[in-house]
């Protein structure tokens, strides 16, 4: 039997609430007052945490320290964007030394960045129509599709973790639209399955600010170590729900000839 070089456990954390999250949510409710001239001139990488976001990050750190090996990991990684870096710091994990990596950054929206959906529709109506056809493969002008973000997640984040942390544990602080590609890769989801989950809007699949994904090869009940990542749980540390936060088995699917030609 060959030696297993996979990490033992991987934890992914979305950043806390940012000023960009507040601005976008307000705009969706008809208030675009946060999109000031000064705000529009900034790149989204500069968006900072709100006071609420800081509290969310502290709550996430507390939950991790209480529930995952005392909050001690073999590798610590975070996005270079300000809101992610500060979230990592506010987790207050004991002895953490963070590696900042640009490939962990948020989905790049290109020309659609720092713009309300109403403005996007007015300036780029054809582009926005295409987004509705298939959001997974849609790429904004000058930006990247979620399919391309997934490649960045695979060859950047996960390749690094597998190389650096064989049979060890790592933590990554990243962004909402990087969390979904992580799920797609770690759970072997197909693009159509991802789109179906997004459309279903099950509360168990919601990625809140500071949402925590924990993937493990260790059976949560028996402690037995498996070859592949076989369980995951998704936890919102500032809105805990035992039923929603429970461990879920990961089914590694393969497809027969008959299934492929349906």
Would you give an account of this structure?
This protein is α/β, with parallel strands linked by helices and 262 residues long. The protein has a single domain, classed as Phosphoglycerate mutase-like (Rossmann fold, 3-Layer(aba) Sandwich). 39% of the residues lie in helices and 12% in strands. The chain contains 10 helices and 7 strands. The protein has helices at residues 19-28, 37-40, 51-67, 82-91, 117-123, 125-133, 146-164, 176-187, 191-200, 257-260, and strands spanning 9-14, 75-79, 99-101, 169-174, 212-216, 231-235, 248-249. A 7-stranded mixed sheet has the order 3-2-4-1-5-6-7, with helices on both faces. Helix 3 (51-67) crosses helix 4 (82-91), helix 5 packs across helix 6 and helix 7 (146-164) crosses helix 8 (176-187). The chain is globular and about 55 Å long. The mean pLDDT is 94. This is phosphoglycerate mutase (2,3-diphosphoglycerate-dependent). InterPro entries: His_Pase_superF_clade-1 (IPR013078), His_PPase_superfam (IPR029033), Phosphogly_mut1 (IPR005952). Keywords: Glycolysis, Isomerase. GO terms for molecular function: phosphoglycerate mutase activity. Its EC number is 5.4.2.11.
């Amino acid at each position: 039997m060959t030696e297993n070089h996979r990490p033992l456990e991987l934890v992914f954390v979305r950043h806390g609430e940012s000023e960009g999250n507040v601005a976008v949510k307000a705009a969706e409710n008809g208030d675009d007052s946060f999109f000031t001239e000064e705000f529009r001139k900034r790149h989204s990488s500069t968006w900072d945490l709100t006071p609420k976001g800081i509290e969310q990050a502290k709550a996430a750190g507390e939950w991790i320290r209480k529930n995952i090996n005392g909050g001690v990991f073999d590798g610590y990684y975070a996005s270079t964007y300000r809101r992610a870096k500060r979230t990592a710091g506010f987790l207050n994990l004991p002895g953490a030394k963070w590696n900042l990596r640009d490939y962990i950054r948020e989905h790049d929206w290109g020309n659609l960045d720092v713009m309300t959906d109403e403005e996007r529709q007015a300036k780029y109506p054809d582009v926005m129509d295409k987004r509705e056809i298939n959001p997974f493969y849609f790429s904004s002008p000058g930006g990247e599709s979620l399919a391309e973000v997934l490649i960045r997640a695979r060859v950047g984040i996960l390749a690094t973790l597998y190389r650096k942390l064989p049979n060890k544990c790592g933590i990554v602080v990243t962004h909402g639209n990087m969390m979904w590609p992580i799920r797609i890769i770690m759970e072997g989801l197909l693009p159509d399955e991802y789109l179906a989950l997004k459309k279903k809007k099950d509360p168990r699949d919601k990625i809140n600010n500071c949402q925590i994904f924990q993937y493990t090869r260790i059976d949560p009940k028996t402690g037995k170590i498996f070859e592949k990542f076989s369980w995951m749980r998704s936890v919102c540390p500032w809105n805990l729900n035992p039923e929603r936060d429970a461990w879920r088995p990961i089914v590694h699917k393969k497809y027969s000839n008959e299934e492929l030609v349906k």
